[in-house]
């Protein structure tokens, strides 16, 4: 069933990129900028570690729990599914969601481990589609130099290089590549401009993709 969206709706804006590319910092500043402009917007993130599924993912990432690759892939996807209806309601009431990682992370990180690309995509089919994906592009060695990687499972240079390859394969017409090696302020300018444009389009009643 389509969403009768003659009314204005919020935009689903996703930030993607390697670990330490600056996603969390940029999500927070974008949301506070939008709110100051009088635009209703919220910061979201995946994994959402606050749920029961999210806490399993969190234990896995900190290496305190071991799960096989397929199992953890499905948990990441389920963690998005459990938030789907709330996200849909927010968007329909006019709130823009600025989301730190989404299905693209799900596919890129699992495929980088060697799982089949199409198998990786399947469980996310039917989730809300992003209106805009801002890809924070950065060489992994530059990202690693930012305070260095912490102890989490995926924070290793060779693995991040592999993830970057899969991100490239996933690019579609909703993507905009942002040079994330620039200063925090310069990156923020690029992100603001792209976001205001898509929010204006969505508020003209563009249908929610699914
Ligand atoms: N994952 C995730 C999957 O495998 N499958 C999935 O489905 C999903 C959703 C956890 C891991 O889970 C994987 C991907 C991840 O490996 P996470 O909790 O989002 O995901 O962890 P990270 O993405 O690793 O979060 P980070 O905090 O490491 O990276 P951010 O958010 O990209 O970077 P940020 O903003 O925290 O900045 C990092 C540092 O750099 C500085 C900041 O001040 C900070 O110190 N910085 C800059 N320095 C210079 N210039 C700039 N332009 C800078 N921007 C930020
Ligand atoms: Na982050």
UniProtKB/TrEMBL annotation:
The cross-references to Gene3D superfamilies, in alphabetical order and at most eight, read:
P-loop containing nucleotide triphosphate hydrolases
Top-level taxon of the source organism: Eukaryota
Q: Can you name one GO molecular function term for this protein? A: ATP binding
Q: What is its EC number?
A: 2.7.4.9
Q: Name one GO biological process term.
A: dUDP biosynthetic process
| Cellular-component GO terms for this entry | cytosol; mitochondrion; nucleus
Q: Which InterPro entries match?
A: P-loop_NTPase (IPR027417), Thymidylate_kin-like_dom (IPR039430), Thymidylate_kin_CS (IPR018095), Thymidylate_kinase (IPR018094)
Query: What are the record keywords, sorted?
Result: ATP-binding, Chloroplast, Kinase, Nucleotide biosynthesis, Nucleotide-binding, Plastid, Transferase
Q: Which residues form the Thymidylate kinase-like domain?
A: 15-191
Pfam families in the cross-refs: Thymidylate_kin
| Pathway terms, separated by semicolons | Pyrimidine metabolism; dTTP biosynthesis
The record's annotation in NCBIfam families points to:
DTMP_kinase
Question: Could you identify this protein by its name?
Answer: Thymidylate kinase
